[in-house]
Design goal:
The chain contains eleven helices and 17 strands. The protein is an alpha+beta fold and 370 residues long. The radius of gyration is 21 Å and the shape is globular. The relative contact order is 0.12. The structure holds adenosine-5'-diphosphate (ADP) and magnesium ion (MG).
């Protein structure tokens, strides 16, 4: 229990997630200090102060530590030495960071919580690669090899359709200094995600199940509520709860899942607010960002019920014309304040609201068609 008053929240990372956390926190009355290496990062505009430092700079981290009462992060690839240095004021701790930084540890954790992952093989050295290749000869199938660390938006992934692809990976793709997981490539019916927040008192808040559609492995649109059976909704929310309790989660966990045969398989985890949760800014009584701030500040969690169906459209650098549309009043625009638009860079998003999901889908199609 914290009996002191939290006045200032420190955020490690000043991209759009840090910015939206800061907006929620400021609305509640907190001050914000953000640490990010890029001057005038997206979060800086809504923060009281930015510490310009690299993410592995322990001195910068100490300055953050001394300038705020509690600290959170917007990304999972936090340097573990920095996380350790911040730990006295980091209620989320560093253990979950360590796990979610590594797909092998992450899959082990998911299974230890009693949940399913795809079939996978860890490849951490040349011998394991050779063993995997030998087995593959006898059981060739479509697989995806992912770097264990550092991948996002499909980066660091190699899709293998046959033995020739695998040979090419062994010869040209494999780097013996890094670890990989080889996963069976599954033909899922849908991808969904569930965001769950939990505070130190063990209060939990699960968000509605989101249906996600990716384009070039980057989230393209999210549809809420997900168009899946009641059984899948219940199973997906239960899985997120199970993980959060298993982890003694403090903060936010986003759980990405595949839907197969009226059941779910867990794909990956993110220990933070998530792109697929942006609908909650307008469609829920409390957003994922406010709930996250509440959780890390040890406040009671708030009612997060769904108030409206929603289609969230991500706006990437090449799609900025989407933001010049003839909006109907129910479309909510969120800009991330990035100086320069680059291909595939996330520039903002639009939450399309409506009386019915059908209405949201029609309006989203209209926006995307032009
Ligand atoms: P990232 O960290 O890049 O988001 P993911 O593991 O989520 O990595 O992979 C990105 C996307 O690739 C997923 O959202 C899914 O569409 C597809 N994908 C990943 N793993 C598999 C798999 N084992 N089978 C089928 N599709 C997959
Ligand atoms: Mg993913």
């Amino acid at each position: 229990m914290h009996f002191f008053m939290i006045q200032t929240i420190g955020i490690l990372g000043g991209g759009q997630l840090g910015r939206m956390m800061a907006i929620a926190a400021r609305t509640m009355g907190y001050n914000i200090v953000v640490l990010d290496p890029t001057p005038n990062c997206p979060c800086a505009a809504v923060a009281d102060k930015q510490i310009v430092a690299n993410f592995d700079d322990v001195e910068g981290a100490k300055e953050l530590l001394s300038s705020c009462d509690v600290i959170t992060y917007e990304f999972e690839n936090v340097n573990l030495a920095v996380a350790k240095a911040l730990e006295p004021k980091l209620p989320q701790g560093s253990e979950l960071l360590k796990i979610t930084q590594n797909r092998i540890l992450e899959k082990e954790l998911i299974r230890s919580a009693g949940l399913q992952t795809v079939n996978y093989t860890a490849i951490t050295n040349r011998k394991e690669l050779q063993d995997f290749a030998n087995n593959y000869q006898a059981n060739s199938r479509k697989i995806v090899i992912k770097t264990a660390q550092g991948g996002y938006d499909g980066k660091g992934q190699f899709v293998i359709e046959n033995i020739d692809d695998l040979k090419a990976f062994v010869q040209n793709g494999f780097n013996e200094h890094i670890h990989y997981v080889a996963e069976d490539f599954i033909s899922f019916e849908k991808e969904v995600s569930v965001i769950v927040c939990r505070n130190a008192r063990g209060e939990v808040s699960v968000f509605p199940v989101v249906e996600n559609i990716h384009k070039n492995q980057i989230l393209f649109v999210s549809i809420i509520p997900a168009r899946v059976s009641e059984v899948v909704i219940a199973t997906a929310q239960k899985a997120a709860l199970q993980l959060s309790n298993h982890l003694n989660l403090i903060g936010t966990l986003a759980v990405e899942m595949f839907v197969c045969n009226n059941d779910i398989v867990i794909n990956e985890l993110a220990p933070r607010p998530h792109n697929s949760g942006h609908f909650s800014l307008n469609a829920c009584a409390t957003s994922q960002f406010e709930q996250h701030i509440r959780a890390v500040c040890s406040l009671p969690l708030s009612d997060n019920r769904l108030l409206s169906p929603c289609v969230m459209i991500n706006v990437l650098g090449q799609d900025q014309q989407l933001m010049n549309h003839d909006y109907i009043g129910k479309n909510k625009l969120h800009l991330y304040g990035k100086k320069e638009a680059k291909h595939d860079r996330k520039m903002g998003h639009i939450n399309v609201l409506g009386e019915t999901l059908e209405e949201c889908l029609i309006e989203a199609d209209r926006l995307l068609d032009v």
